[in-house]
Backbone:
């Protein structure tokens, strides 16, 4: 009987992105790996699901201790399909990434990478997302290797609290000031669109923008940690209830 | 100078859904309304954004106190475009819905309706999402009218705490036991796919599923409130940090 841990990996950059293949290589010795990832880029798809059309999946690679499936759906779809049809049993851990581009701060709400992780958490499996400020398709993630290996080994050994997952982000540079446990920075995106005019005189809009935080000097946030060279580990919870607002609202209605 | 409140409305069922037009009618006397909504159904798109292709928007209707725009993007895109290009000034409130289908419990994570609301909250505008357990395209939402009017008037007058928004869900039936301020039920979806085989012998998968909660008897949750005939108002916060896990994690890494 195979007693090696079972590791499910997905992402939002697609099964053939460098980041997901690096991630699988970095933790290969820790368990059997099944990758179920989108068949192309799905950045910024959050926890979107595919309900208006059917989803397809195909095995694209298989070797000792590693299977790779490509799915026509979203990152969330990948996790849901994996649990129901593709995994031989419940996985011991769900990993996402390495995302080409960070998912710190409010980006946890938009991130397909974190969609994978939140879906895994919802299914009561310890789940961790890895993202790097390096955006290039051929980014060198080798400096992340010891950190990722340590974090995955630790979570496999110790687990995570129920309905808590991890959002791990790495700075742009290759030497880190260590690891910081952070809170989610609560800034916002501004100047979010670039307006253009097509050759037929009609306007269209490209999503872009710059992130602005009112908390730039708050050393407890993940944004601060990244800006100061730390590996940022932000614990994220399923429950979004604003308990602090409940008493006020009971007076409202 | 126009001093009437400015109300931005979006949804994930599309600008021509019955629910969004009912919502606009129900609050028409409370302010000037600008609808910016997807040009078709975008159910279950969460906070997905459109980054791989450009987005287009067109005005489809204009009358005294009401403008309607249809956008090719996601619910989140609609809010972002509205703030940057379509609204004459920052709105006094952002509304979403009425969604055909409830968005209680963990569905806040998947819901395009709540994507609208979370985006509005991120931009520091009081934001409220309305959803009904009634799924039919021609659902009769008239019983919701006094509740929606009261909630919107109250929030326009009193505001909401910073980075807190409201997820309001209505039961299937037409008489309600009153309003309950709730927490987000933390169940999960099971049996999420229906597997079919196409005429060419290839498998494909339709998203479906049934929601299961371990908290069925917990009368504090939104799921319980809906199941017992109450209007469920769940305050939702931007900050997803699992503060309770931070001390543990500091020992981990």
Residues:
């Amino acid at each position: 009987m195979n007693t090696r841990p079972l590791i499910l990996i997905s992402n939002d950059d697609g099964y053939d992105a460098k980041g997901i293949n690096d991630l699988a290589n970095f933790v290969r010795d820790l368990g059997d790996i099944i990758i179920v990832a989108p068949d192309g880029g799905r950045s910024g798809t959050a926890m979107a699901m595919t309900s208006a059309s059917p989803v397809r999946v195909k095995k694209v690679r298989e070797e000792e201790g590693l299977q790779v499936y490509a799915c026509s759906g979203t990152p969330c779809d990948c996790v849901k399909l994996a649990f129901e049809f593709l995994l031989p049993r419940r996985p011991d851990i769900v990993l996402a990434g390495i995302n080409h581009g960070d998912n710190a701060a409010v980006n946890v709400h938009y991130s397909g990478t974190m969609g994978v992780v939140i879906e895994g958490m919802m299914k009561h499996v310890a789940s961790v997302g890895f993202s790097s400020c390096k955006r290039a398709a051929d980014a060198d993630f080798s400096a992340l290797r010891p950190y990722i290996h340590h974090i995955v080994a630790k979570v496999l050994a110790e687990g995570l609290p129920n309905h808590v997952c991890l959002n791990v982000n790495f700075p742009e540079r290759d030497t880190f000031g260590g690891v910081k446990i952070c809170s989610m920075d609560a800034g916002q995106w501004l100047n979010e669109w670039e307006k253009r005019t097509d050759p037929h005189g009609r306007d269209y809009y490209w999503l872009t923008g710059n992130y602005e935080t009112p908390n730039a000097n708050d050393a407890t946030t993940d944004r601060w940690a990244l800006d100061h060279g730390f590996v940022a580990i932000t614990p994220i919870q399923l429950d979004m209830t604003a308990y602090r607002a409940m008493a006020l609202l009971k007076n409202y209605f």
Notes: Chain A has a mean pLDDT of 97. The longest strand of chain A covers residues 93-100.
